[in-house]
Design brief:
The complex is a heterodimer of chains A (about 350) and B (about 90).
Chain A: E1 2-8, E2 25-28, H1 33-41, E3 46-53, H2 55-60, H3 64-73, E4 79-82, H4 89-104, E5 109-113, E6 128-130, H5 138-153, E7 164-165, H6 179-191, E8 221-226, E9 230-232, E10 248-251, E11 263-265, H7 273-277, H8 285-293, E12 299-300, E13 303-306, H9 314-330, E14 335-339
Parallel strand pairs in A: 1-3, 1-4, 4-5, 5-6, 8-12, 8-13, 8-14
Antiparallel strand pairs in A: 2-3, 6-7, 9-11, 10-13
Helix pairs in contact in A: 1-5, 3-4
Chain B: E1 2-4, H1 7-12, E2 17-20, H2 35-53, E3 61-62, H3 72-76, H4 82-87
Parallel strand pairs in B: 1-2, 2-3
Classes of the chains: A alpha/beta (about 350), B alpha/beta (about 90).
Amino acid sequence: MRIVHYVNQFFAGVGGEEAAGVAPAVREGAVGPGRALAAQLGSEHEIVATVYCGDDYAASRSSATEEVLELVRGFEPDLLVAGPAFTSGRYGLACARLAAAAAREGIRSVAAMHPDNPGLDEAEPAPVIESGRIGREMRQSIERLAGAIKTLARGEELHEGDGRIGRAPRRNRISETNGATRSVELLLARMAGDRERTEVPLPSFASVTPSAPLEDAASARIALLTEGALVPMGNPDRLESARATRWLRYQLDGLDELEEGAYQSVHGGFSTVAANADPHRLLPLDVARDLEREGRIGTLHHEYLVTAGNGTQVATARSFGVEWAAELRQAGVQAAILTAT
Amino acid sequence: MLLCNLVSIAIRVGAPRIVPTHGIPFPTGDPELTPEEERRLRRRLLDRALEALGTAVDGPTVFDPAETTADADAAVDTPGSPESAASEVPSP
């Protein structure tokens, strides 16, 4: 098979965080982890090109997936391989979105990442193969991925036994035993100590690694964020009041306070009367400006980021989190205060 | 860091630094208070938020605003009344 491999700027050898903003680009042949993968795959398959993109660029630009996919199309591959992204959130999202977009237009694709990666839920309909948690587990991760690629090359589908993780497309089939029998079997398995087996996996909340403490708030740039759906009166950008699919940004520069009547909350999950009467009940701009004037914080970030946290899918919310973090890091923000309703 | 009322949910999803607030629809306010009291409450919440941001944590950690050490009220209230500032926040 002709394979195009996607990696981030780090694994492409371009650089670390300082290069996280680089735009999508191409290297001929296999690069970095692609070389190990090519060695595992043998001569039957060839990695014809490596496409890469900076993590921040990939996570914070809505056009990034299409830009990368355009480069992939140029090689007319039989298969697109993305990752392994381990637990790296921005990288995982980029891999998942690219694999999904490719699969939707008929390019076969597979991504690799750790089950805790926030990208996992965005890869559908493309399959995802489990990788280790960190780059040190590259060797085992590449071996498993190579095995899955060989399975795909034989025209077979990937299953749990191949290391497939995440949601698989549902297919109706007739079971040999009815629901009552299967539920008793699950119960017996559980009593015997199996705590994992289920027919309906629940969404899992990955663990969050806390950031290091802020060394000096007085010199830091601090951002205000809210999921309280606070938007300018009239909701000009039409933020959804529930099941939000996006987030927005609004200027705070030149504002000391949020005037009553100039903002409204469009959140559909609580009474917005109190918040509309005084928007500072959702976004504490007045006091944040006091803190800025007194030198308790360095600078207040010039805009606030907002979405509606109401019935939002965990996967969507996780992606917003990764996008916000990438966005704020690029803007030189060291800490953020998020109000939640 | 996160300012919210539903602390148990915040802990369950792993938010590392949490400051509890008075009510779900108004994380940085409380319409029951006078405007002056409400602004003092908001200040106290943000002061606590800054303390939370400056503190190393291993996992979800709740920073109760009643336990703040750098309370804005101490500066504006009559001397010797840090306890009264703390008691304004109802215990959960």
